[in-house]
UniProtKB/TrEMBL annotation:
The keyword Isomerase does not apply. The gene is 106090731. The lineage of its organism: Eukaryota, Metazoa, Ecdysozoa, Arthropoda, Hexapoda. This is Large ribosomal subunit protein bL17m. One of its GO terms (biological process) is translation. The keyword Ribonucleoprotein applies.
Amino acid sequence: MNQAEVTKLMSQLRFALRPAKRHLKNPDGPEGRLLKLRKTVTALVKHERIELYYNRADEARGYAELLISDAIRYGDRHKATMELADFWLLEKQLVHKLFKVIVPRFENSNVSYTRMYKAPRDYPGMYYDKAVLELRGHPYPSLQQDFSQNRNFIHNILLDEARKEYRREKLAEMANKLAAESSDASKVAEGTGNSVKAETKSEQQDKM
């Protein structure tokens, strides 16, 4: 399919396709914005987990993925890849880490090299979307909670016992309520029977 046919096909879509808008303004212009992204990629390679604003993390993630992908594909003997690493990594000792630590970690990986999570907002204060951007295989504790083996945690045991005790109390309340209602019904039935017997007896005495 040539370029003209692709353009014709795109014009037939029901919804207009627009590029994603990123609000990454910088007082120093495009150069300052690019420098901030370079600092973000450098910090990610250095610390392997960083917290920052969501928009900047989302864009810097793509550049970090591209950098690691090219480093794995071409190695440290490829001139263009070394120039790319030299551009994005402001601290030049991190170039050695990229090829000697990160590349061996991900050379057999079939998933993304990074993960990104939404971070909780600061309260009180203005609302800004924040994110945590990290490299897979980092040495830090995981941000994802493991729900597979937590039944024997002390707080879960206490919560289970409290839940059972609450159910027992509710069942006892229901049993007492049903017993009280049944006793009231039997008393009403007994009173009705006594009144019927009294009326029958009085009728018999009148006839005599």
